[in-house]
Design brief:
- The complex is a heterodimer.
- The longest helix of chain A is centred in the middle third of the chain and has 54 residues.
- In chain A, the strands form three sheets. Chain A has a six-stranded mixed β-sheet with strand order 6-9-10-4-11-12, with helices on both faces. Chain A has a four-stranded mixed β-sheet with strand order 1-5-2-3.
- The termini of chain A are far apart.
- Chain A is α/β, with parallel strands linked by helices.
- Chain A contains 23 helices and twelve strands.
- In chain A, helix 9 crosses helix 10 and helix 19 crosses helix 21.
- Chain A is 65% helix and 9% strand.
- By secondary structure, chain B is α/β, with parallel strands linked by helices.
- In chain B, helix 3 crosses helix 14, helix 10 packs antiparallel against helix 11 and helix 11 packs across helix 14.
- Chain B is extended.
- The chains are: A alpha/beta, B alpha/beta.
- At the A-B interface, helix 7, helix 9, helix 11, helix 12 and helix 13 of A face strand 2, strand 3, helix 5, helix 6 and helix 7 of B.
- Chain A: Keywords: ATP-binding, Nucleotide-binding.
- Chain A: It comes from Coniosporium tulheliwenetii.
- Chain A: This is ATP-binding cassette long-chain fatty acid transporter pxa2.
- Chain B: Keywords: ATP-binding, Nucleotide-binding.
- Chain B: It comes from Coniosporium tulheliwenetii.
Chain lengths: 681, 793
């Protein structure tokens, strides 16, 4: 437009009136050029702000609606399903979560992270400035430092976040409750290790990936518009936008195609693995020709589809390549030609050298600016990725908060749907602390919501050793979980000593990593041991009771650090666990099949020692030999009934033995009858 | 705007051209004779009618084919051509598409055995030249001779002939690749022209340049897209060749698909992974290799030659020495990043324990910090070496002809002699040219480095695919030999097969055949029965019985040829046809397809038509595995037997889930059709349908056996004895039950402190009542069962 004055001298245009009209318009425009461009900029800016405001308002309304919708269906076990399938989107939720996580990873103004971030930004600006003013200097050193900073930052974020999560995760039994009572988080360890790392990586990356292109774009566009004039830039970006949207409209649904391809590929693979599964049957039928047809059919279905995609992609590729590389390139050349053919106010002279210089600079800036633009486009994908990680990590944090507040969500698989069970599950019992253990009408519930025993009542006083027997899955473990406080009490009254007074020894004792001493005094640390006034000599005496003092003589002695689960055999591990019990000498101890791998002799020594230390034992065991150490028995029958009685070990033993013998014989009866029937026919 | 004038200029010649030709045609028409006009009109008419007719025919044929395709797609049928080719219809978009598959000839497999089973000693494969050791255990995937051998062997399959489709694809691919290089040169020159015009302020030329730019651009983008397209096409063509080859080798009469995993075990259980995923990756990376390696390689050759021309041999050797030096230095100094990664993974997921966790994390952090600082230092070093030392060295080299013209190359020396006066300018020009060459050379070298990384990836895939195919070949050819150094193979290993399987005998006969469960190669098998001999002729039905795990099914597997016959002789009929033998497996197998396909399996619908059998309304496709119940699946197996009507049938527990009356019916029906049955079952009630019984698992060790005719005196007396014993044992059942009740009462009595008895809570009573009801039900069940037994008797 501004060109007409110049062009008119060289071209012959017939319509004089048109020429004069255009001339007039042009001169008017040139007079008010600054004002007009300012007005345009202002309008654009206002439009941008209003758009952002609109988006925020929309998100607010949407989140409000969502919150309302969440309130409505009431509280129940099915609630978890509705919220569980949240779609990962860039909405207010994401920014809220991100802000929350940012507060964790950058705790204060004087933290190391912020210092790192600031120096990172300084380097970023430095790099842009260098590449703006010094054409040929490749900021290699700077970019190396940048990548170092980025790695450092990501590691710092990860440290902060991991520490924070560990604090939460390992307090108040959260780690147990998370896996046992709540099914919103399936694999917490993977979340903590992998997803946190990915989150921090992508957060650190994103900063440099977004900050730099934006910075670049602003700087380059500004200096470009100074040298070629705002109009050209404006027109060009308009055309680029237009062609991009045309291209987008013409793009075939590649996502769907790819999904189809993956499905077909999966089917083909499934047919192959099916053949492997049934290879014997197919071989016996000699059905390989039929199977080959099926396989080939699967393969060619896939290949036909792939070929079709390829053709579509070819057409699309031609178009895309042309538009992006050549059409936009031509536009760029035109833009660079503006100061040559038209006089741009504010730009300097028109000698050959000046022209060359301005052309070269403009072109370079245009290239860099479009590069930055492309990178911003590309970083949209990264933001969505970050949104995914943010959602996962913040879900973990939310769930942990929920759990610490005592709110569980679990989808129940089994009979919990019946009204009766639901009623039981909704109720809550009372828990008192006291010297002895007493259960009054407490329902025992399995982890997936089955009611195992409707009302359990029993009591254990100090010195009354209790034996608990019953088939698998009858509620023994659930009982212990209630005693350990891991499990909510769904009804009735429970009186139990504080958590520290009950010691639990499982069948496969947990051996932590660390020194031998730590194995014995676990979960105490060395300092607690010193505070209790226990020396290594005492520990040695404890070990000699269970006759494993020899492991101290192994290389390293008390301070040997090993993977103890691999080093010690099953029986030795159980003895170490018993040594742990003697070290702690609690009031009550639950022994869950914990002598299954040791000899009878050691077993006797263990029980005698425990009684000597005044520990009241609650034993779960199928071993008859243990009966004589107990005075009470709690017997479950696995069908919801139980017997709690005094134990007259000798007589009971005899009766039980006889019963077992009879059971064995009776079990063989149907088999014998069947055999007779077969032989007589 | 500015373009208006050019546009108008462009329009006018077109109009002129149009007018010119119009007048030309008019004058011709008026000049030509009447007959000529007539002939022209006639020929035009005929051609129009002919095209229409031909088009209509073509269209109708296409429609008919689509119709058959739709029908056959549903029926899962394979059409067999006269030359052994198979025609299958696959769904494509909304209709179907026809694919004809030509089988791989058995001679091809024989010819390829040399490539896959006897790798040349030069490649460092076969340990002693004559024992085929496949997959070669000592060769690791990498860039070595083994890789070359493997890749070339696979190439033999992928490009079977010089005039195959793949050659054409590769040729056109390379043509387009060269075209791209040429076009990039043209574009660069055009760019220069445009810039020149722009700087000169020549507006018209500039606009014309832009137009040219767009024109060339459209052609260049076509070329680029074509390169990508052809690359994928090549990859697909490779994959199709390999997949067909593997399918033919995997699924044939040698039962390789069974033996591969049950006897050989060379590729583990993941053959599907090999065939689907690894093959795809291999083909994709092999196809991309061509384009990614080809260009830098050509560049390297060209640039090196040019440098040699202008700089001479000395400089070139110096250059090459520099490359090698820097490469070795960098490799020496580069930290083992691969190893470091493994350590990280080790710390990654472990048990959750506060102190140890924190400690572990801290260690991990230190580790990663170490890696980062190591990385940054290494990167700086690499940049320094590659960027600065190379360019410094490059300047040094390029300055050679300037200072030492005698040492220079041919071109340089000639030029130096020719242009005495323009020496300065010539030097300048030479220097710039050489510098640009050096830079391009470095660039091409860098790209080459990257593609070498790709190459080592390809080596990994190649080794996997090669392993699969060579293992298949080994299974196919049964090429098992004792390991080098030992003269005899391990007992009952795959190299120790001395027996014979003879198909075509009218009956089933085993002569001194040991029943051995084979181990995976090279381990030996477990002997279940030392030597088994029996013979079954037409009409002699045999019942094979015995406890679990004594090798009843093993007999079926050996007769079917799934397991090798280690010693002795096995004679049986042919597998297929009405005088053949059929095996019904223990686990029912339902294929994918229509209900008809289930019954006629392993036949297909077309085979059925050939056999002259009819059906209607059987085209329902379902996931039959889930639709049918266990008993129905077994009945489906019997239905297959009745459909195929073989002369002999091996039924392995074929009626275990079918009620006894139906079972009897099925057996009677099968016998009426003249099928000789060999049944494997633990059910003694099946005896009455058979004439012989083979009892395995007798004796103390369970390795003795007994073959006798049913109904003889010895067989009857043994039955009587057993019955007597059992009846005696049943006498005291009532007594036991009473005593048990007493004990339970005693045990469930509840005491509290002081010996008083506590009344049981209310709910416990209910529970007990329920219990007794349950017991009642159980007894009823027993009674019912007895009743049915009586009915049978």
């Amino acid at each position: 437009m501004a060109a007409q004055s110049k062009l008119s001298s060289t071209r012959h245009i017939s319509t004089q009136s048109l020429k004069s009209l255009i001339n007039e318009l042009t001169s008017r425009y040139l007079q008010h050029r600054t004002r007009i461009s300012r007005a345009i900029y202002l309008t654009l800016f206002v439009a941008l702000i209003s758009r952002i405001r609109n988006a925020i308002a929309e998100q607010k309304a949407a989140s409000q609606r969502q919150a309302e919708a969440r309130k409505r269906p009431g509280t129940g076990a099915t609630e978890g399903e509705a919220t569980g399938r949240k779609k990962v989107e860039l909405n207010r939720e994401f920014f809220k979560n991100l802000l929350r996580l940012l507060r964790i990873v950058i705790p204060g103004w004087r933290s190391k992270e912020l210092r790192l971030l600031i120096s990172h930004s300084i380097f970023l600006v430095l790099r842009t400035l260098i590449s703006l003013y010094v054409a040929e200097l490749d900021g290699r050193l700077v970019s190396n430092l940048l990548s170092y900073h980025q790695c450092k930052l990501s590691l710092q974020y990860r440290t902060r976040l991991t520490n924070y999560i560990h604090n939460k995760y390992l307090n108040h039994m959260t780690f147990y409750t998370l896996s046992a009572l709540d099914d919103r988080i399936k694999n917490a360890d993977q979340l903590i290790t992998v997803d946190v790392a990915k989150f921090s990586n992508s957060l650190a990356e994103l900063y440099s990936n977004i900050a730099k292109p934006i910075l670049d774009m602003v700087i380059y566009n500004w200096s470009l518009s100074r040298s070629v004039g705002g109009e050209g830039l404006f027109m060009m970006s308009l055309i680029v936008q237009l062609s991009a949207s045309v291209m987008r409209a013409l793009t075939p649904p590649f996502g769907k195609y790819v999904a189809d391809e993956a499905r077909l590929e999966g089917e083909f693979r499934f047919q192959h693995s099916r053949l492997i599964d049934y290879s014997e049957e197919v071989a016996l039928y000699a059905g390989h020709e039929a199977e080959k047809d099926t396989l080939d059919k699967g393969y060619f279905t896939l290949i036909k589809h792939v070929n079709r995609i390829l053709r579509r992609r070819f057409y699309h590729g031609v178009m895309e390549d042309f538009v992006i590389k050549y059409f936009w390139g031509a536009l760029g050349l035109m833009l660079c030609s503006v100061p040559v053919f038209f006089k741009v106010p504010g730009a300097s002279g028109a000698s050959m050298g000046d022209r060359t210089e301005s052309f070269v600079t403009n072109r370079r800036m245009l290239l860099m600016s479009s590069d930055a633009f492309g990178r911003i486009m590309f970083s949209y994908k990264e933001i969505t990725e970050l949104a995914g990680y943010t959602a996962r990590v913040s879900t973990l944090l939310d769930v942990m908060d929920d759990i610490q507040a005592g709110h569980f969500e679990k989808r129940l698989v089994s009979s919990a749907s019946t009204d009766e069970n639901a009623a039981v599950l909704r109720g809550r019992g009372q828990v008192f602390e006291g010297e002895d253990i007493e259960f009054v009408d407490v329902p025992i519930v399995s982890p997936n919501g089955d009611i195992l025993v409707r009302k359990l009542s029993f009591s254990v006083r100090p010195g009354e050793h209790l034996l608990i027997v019953g088939p698998n899955g009858c509620g023994k473990s659930s009982l212990f979980r209630i005693l350990g406080g891991l499990w909510p009490v769904y009804g009735g009254t429970v009186r139990k000593p504080p958590f520290e007074d009950i010691f639990y020894i499982p069948q496969r004792p947990y051996l932590s990593r660390g020194t031998l001493r730590q194995q014995i005094i676990y979960p105490d640390g060395v300092r607690e041991m010193r505070d209790k006034g226990i020396t290594d000599a005492d520990l040695h005496r404890i070990l000699s009771v269970v006759e494993i003092e020899s492991i101290v003589d192994r290389p390293g002695g008390w301070d040997a650090e090993q993977e103890w689960t691999d080093v010690l055999s099953g029986g030795l591990q159980q003895r170490v666990a018993m040594a742990r019990l003697f070290y702690h000498a609690p009031k009550y101890a639950i022994l869950d099949e914990c002598t299954s791998s040791v000899t009878l002799e050691i077993e006797r020594v263990m029980y005698d020692e425990a009684k000597r230390l005044g520990i009241t034992l609650m034993t779960v065991s199928h071993r008859r030999s243990l009966w004589k150490y107990h005075s009470r028995i709690l017997q479950f029958d696995g069908q919801g009934n139980y017997v709690f009685t005094k134990l007259d070990a000798e007589r009971r033993l005899q009766l039980e033995d006889e019963k077992e013998e009879l059971d064995l014989r009776l079990r063989a009866v149907p088999e014998i009858e069947r055999r007779i029937a077969e032989l007589t026919t | 705007m500015a373009a208006q004038s050019t546009l108008r200029n462009g329009e006018d010649p077109l109009l002129v051209l149009y007018n010119h030709y119009l007048t030309l045609i008019r004058t011709r028409l008026t000049k030509s004779s009447r007959t000529a006009k007539l002939v022209a009109t006639l020929s035009l008419l005929i051609s129009i009618v002919g095209t229409g007719y031909g088009g209509g025919r073509w269209w109708q044929r296409r429609k008919a084919e689509k119709e058959t395709g739709r029908k056959l797609l549903r029926r899962n049928s394979g059409l067999r051509g006269k030359d052994g080719s198979r025609t299958i219809y696959v769904p494509y978009r909304s209709s179907t598409s026809k694919v004809t598959i030509y089988p791989t000839k058995p001679t091809t497999f024989d010819a390829h055995r040399r490539l896959f089973l006897q790798p040349p000693r030069a490649a460092g494969l076969g340990s002693d030249g004559y024992t085929p050791q496949v997959p070669p255990p000592q060769t690791k995937p990498g860039l070595n001779l083994a890789f070359l051998h493997q890749f070339l062997s696979l190439l033999n399959i992928m490009i079977p002939r010089w005039d195959s489709k793949e050659t054409g694809l590769l040729l056109s691919h390379s043509v387009f690749l060269m075209l791209r290089t040429y076009l990039s040169l043209v574009v660069a020159r055009l760019d220069g022209e445009i810039v020149r015009d722009l700087v000169a302020g020549n507006g018209k030329a500039f606009l014309w340049g832009i137009v040219k730019w767009c024109g060339i651009g459209s052609f260049a983008s076509y070329t680029n897209a074509m390169i990508k397209f052809l690359q994928s096409k090549v990859s697909i063509a490779f994959r199709t060749r390999l997949t067909r080859y593997i399918h033919d080798l995997y699924l044939n009469d040698h039962l390789n698909y069974y033996k591969l995993q049950n006897l050989d075990g060379g590729v583990g259980l993941g053959a599907d992974q090999f065939i689907t995923q690894d093959l795809t990756l291999f083909c994709a990376s092999a196809a991309s290799l061509y384009s990614s390696l080809g260009k830098p390689f050509v560049d390297l050759c060209v640039f090196n030659y040019q440098l040699f021309r202008s700089l001479g041999p000395l400089a070139l050797s110096g250059l090459l020495a520099n490359y090698f030096l820097t490469a070795t230095i960098l490799r020496r100094l580069s930290p083992p990043f691969g190893k470091l990664k493994a350590e990280v993974a080790f710390y990654g997921g472990d048990q959750m324990e506060r102190t140890f966790l924190d400690k572990g994390f801290k260690e991990l952090k230190h580790w990663m910090e170490g890696i980062y600082s190591l990385k940054i230092r290494y990167n700086m070093l690499e940049d320094f070496v590659l960027k600065y030392s190379w360019s410094a060295f490059g300047y040094l080299i390029t300055s050679l002809p300037v200072f030492l013209p005698a040492w220079g190359g041919l071109g340089g020396a000639a030029e130096a002699l020719a242009e005495k006066n323009g020496k300065e300018r010539s030097r300048m020009k030479d220097f710039i040219t050489n510098k640009r060459l050096m830079l391009s050379l470095a660039d091409a070298g860098g790209r080459m480095m990257y593609s070498i990384k790709d190459l080592s990836e390809l080596a990994g895939y190649t080794s996997r695919v090669y392993t699969l195919i060579s293992t298949l070949h080994r299974v196919h050819a049964a090429a098992y030999f004792p390991p080098p150094g030992t003269r005899h193979a391990e007992l009952y290993s795959l190299a120790d097969v001395q027996g014979t399987l003879h198909a075509g005998f009218d009956g089933v006969r085993l002569e001194h055949v040991p029943i051995v469960a084979p181990g995976l190669w090279p381990a030996g098998g477990d002997e279940l029965v030392e030597s088994l001999s029996f013979v079954v002729h037409a009409g002699d039905h045999l019942l094979v019985t015995g406890p679990n795990g004594v090798g009843k099914s093993a007999v079926a597997r050996i007769v079917a040829g799934l397991w090798p016959t280690y010693r002795g002789l096995v004679s049986r009929p042919r597998r297929v046809g009405e005088d053949g033998i059929m095996f019904l497996p223990q686990r029912p197998y339902l294929s994918t397809g229509t209900l008809r396909d289930q019954v006629i399996y392993p036949h297909t619908a077309v085979d059925m038509k050939d056999a002259g059998r009819r059906d209607r309304g059987w085209d329902t496709r379902k996931d039959w595995k889930d639709v049918l119940s266990g008993g129905e699946k077994q009945r489906m197996g019997i239905a297959r037997l009745l459909y195929h009507e073989p002369r002999y049938a091996f039924v392995d527990e074929g009626t275990s889930a079918v009620s006894s009356d139906v079972e009897g019916l099925l057996y009677e029906r099968a016998k009426a059709r003249g099928i000789t049955l060999i049944t494997i079952s633990t059910r003694a009630s099946l005896k009455r349908y058979h004439t012989f019984t083979l009892t395995l698992g007798l004796g103390d060790n369970g390795d003795e056996w007994d073959f006798q005719r049913i109904g003889t005196a010895s067989e009857k007396s043994s039955v009587e004895k057993e019955l007597h014993e059992l009846r005696e044992r049943l006498q005291s059942v009532e007594e036991w039950k009473r005593r048990r009740q007493e004990i339970e009462d005693e045990l469930s009595r509840v005491w509290v402190e002081g010996g008083d008895e506590l009344a049981p809570p209310a709910y416990e009573e209910e529970g007990r009542n329920e219990d007794s009801e349950g017991a009642g039900e159980a007894e009823e069940g027993v009674a019912r069962e007895e009743g049915t037994n009586e009915v049978e008797a």
